[in-house]
Amino acid sequence: MLDPLEPVLARLLEEWPEIKAPRVTEILREDYGYAGSVDLVKKRLARMRPSKVRAAQKTGYRPGQVLQLDWAEMPTRPKVAGRTRRVYALIASLPFSGAQTAHFSFDLSAESFLEGHVRALEWLGGVPRECVYDNLRSVVAQRDGDVIQWNPRFVALRGHYAFHATACTPATPREKGAVEGAVRHVKTGFWPARRIAGLSDLDAQYADWRDRVCNRRRHASGGFWVNERLEVEWDALRPLPPVAFDYGGRRATRVPLDCYLKLGGNFYRAPESLVQQRVELRFDRDRVWIAHRGQIVARYIRSHDRGRWFPPPRLRPEPPAPAPLRELRVAAVASPELADYAQLSA
User: Fold this and answer.
1) N or C: fewer beta carbons within 10 Å in the chain?
2) 21-32 helix and 6-15 helix, angle to the nearest 10 degrees
3) What average pLDDT values come out for the chain (346 residues) when binned by 10 residues?
């Protein structure tokens, strides 16, 4: 029934590749007298419509050529500082060697991304020629097909380290298969049965596992030793810039009368001499510092708890102690006899 109408179907698919069977059936009935069902049209369109599946190309890499990075949320939520927290990891993987490193945080902010990026490059001790990302908001501000508008803060990072950046095609994770495998390895090989006291403790546990287990394994598909190829990659990396990138967050604010500045639900005190003056509140994952006119005037270890004050407010002084009780001495007076009352009233 549909064989004579196949040229019509082919023309419709060529002009409108996403056209659906109900609309095609409507056109065939109105213009060509088709009397069949929608199901027949749907099955014929399924055979004629071009496949959307693209063939995957196996890609090879040179030493120090590419670093792939992506965020991952850990499978469980540990209790840290009295609260159940989501834990995220920015994972960086080298496709040539299969080596990896990670930076953990409690959020997906741009500051955490930049800090994780800098720490990954510092661990490598050099800069690869290209970095590959998913379409992270910290990297891609806006995308229209192949036209990409990069995040301004990421542009500053890329310019500082002078590497080429590539954003993967949306919904194609195979374009960064190395870091996808690294994410699975962290979730299944490192994270289960861990007890952590905080992010610094998590960093220490991960560094031990990374250097002792992960980056000393035999690669599952390549069959080579990861640590041997990692040594080759280290020699191929470009040197780090002489000055480290400033990844810390910043917020301009005015010092209130009580001198406490709020960050992440906690309060950090500025010097009293700066009351009502503008300062810059700087922070990263582990530190908080206050700057005034380019000079650091206060430093603190950052707390990921809530409602903490650094330093604690001065306690109100206790009221003065009450005066000691004094004993009152009263002269002893003998009551008059009954006869004396009668004499007095006579």
Assistant:
1) C
2) 130
3) 84 86 88 87 85 68 95 94 91 96 95 96 96 92 90 96 92 83 95 93 96 94 94 96 95 96 96 96 96 96 93 91 81 65 62
Strand-pair category, 309-310 with 295-301: unpaired
Which residues is 133 bridged to in the sheet? 69, 167
Q: What CATH number has the domain spanning 66-236?
A: 3.30.420.10
Query: Which H helix or E strand runs over 268?
Result: strand 266-269
pTM as predicted: 0.77
Q: Domain limits of the chain? A: 3-48, 66-236, 249-310
266 and 309 in contact (C-beta within 8 Å)? yes
Axis crossing angle, helix 21-32 with helix 38-48, rounded to the nearest 10: 110
**Lookup: tokens for 295:** 């000079």
- Cα separation, 74 vs 83, whole angstroms: 16
